[in-house]
Amino acid sequence: xxxxxxxxxxxxxxxxxxxxxxxxxxxxxxxxxxxxxxxxxxxxxxxxxxxxxxxxxxxxxxxxxxxxxxxxxxxxxxxxxxxxxxxxxxxxxxxxxxxxxxxxxxxxxxxxxxxxxxxxxxxxxxxxxxxxxxxxxxxxxxxxxxxxxxxxxxxxxxxxxxxxxxxxxxxxxxxxxxxxxxxxxxxxxxxxxxxxxxxxxxxxxxxxxxxxxxxxxxxxxxxxxxxxxxxxxxxxxxxxxxxxxxxxxxxxxxxxxxxxxxxxxxxxxxxxxxxxxxxxxxxxxxxxxxxxxxxxxxxxxxxx
Length: 304
Known about the structure:
alpha/beta, disordered N terminus
């Protein structure tokens, strides 16, 4: 598009100057309109018409160039916005092989009640790539507007704060507004603490506002989305027990500093680990719905 503008701009300017120059040439003749029409009426009218037509074409071309520039700038802004949101994940369908794992991920995406997927395999077997790829296939979710716990109005499963507002009459169920947002993707780090996983009281906001402010944890943000745990075999035992308890019951209960909070937690659990680093504890494997290995089907030379 930039090359096209560079090529067309001199031509358009030439047409515009030629059209303007033709009009000036008619004016410089010094003849009135009657004399011009009497002496060389056909030639004079033709020159004036050609000048007006050329000027019109030049103006239309300039307007078209301005429209193209505005369209290109809008596309650039969209592309920059996409770059700011992060790199585009590798599509799940583009992963060669691993058909059983891809099928299991899609099935759990359709019905998270299956219990999640744990994938074992050595490095370079696209475990995390497939986990992020299936997240892009999930449909958007409808939640109560500006709700930090991603609660679904139709499910009637609300967090403690929203339920208290409904019970007190501060808000009515019919007046709850909803919004459609992309499903969340939350990754649990290996060194995560209990307060970060379940949530805790935000001391800074509590002191500033004068009332107790609860900061939701990773499990609250992952509700109705994807909860990804990389190297689950290296996760602390107490942390893994808290994680499995919340996922098995579908609810998280936190009691901190005289505050009791309860909210739903029903994400799609996707966990990965490397057998060479450490074995997965048996009770973890028993609590997850599907356990597959990425090393079970090695690729041939042609597939590689």
